[in-house]
Design a protein that fits this description.
Helices cover 0% and strands 40% of the residues. It is an all-beta fold and 95 residues long. The strands form two sheets. The chain has a six-stranded antiparallel beta sheet, with no helix packed on it.
Length: 95
């Protein structure tokens, strides 16, 4: 993929959740919400402070993250639906 986010932005691929509940009920596509969990694909270089120093991001490519329901902008790159969001939209990293 030939895409690199700028500054404090992160490129994320959503991780799909199970289509079945614990009780075995299958959830149809029309009733599912978009997942709020994803995998970091690429990160920007970091944020610049006023004195010109670059602060690197806390996440790295390959991290599994949680983000807010309405976070980021949906984009299609190489036929794949991805999200571009600021690092501040990320709620946490799943260890």
């Amino acid at each position: 993929m030939a895409f690199k986010p700028l500054h404090d932005r992160v490129l994320v691929r959503r991780i799909e959740e199970d289509t079945k509940t614990k009780g075995g009920i299958i959830i149809p596509d029309t009733a599912k919400e978009k997942p709020q969990q994803g995998e970091v694909i690429a990160i920007g270089g970091g944020t610049k402070s006023e004195d010109g120093k670059v602060t690197p991001l806390d996440v790295k490519a390959g991290d599994t993250i949680l983000f807010g329901k309405w976070s980021g902008s949906e984009v299609t790159i190489d036929g794949e639906e991805l999200l571009i969001m600021k690092e501040s939209d990320i709620l946490g990293v799943i260890a």
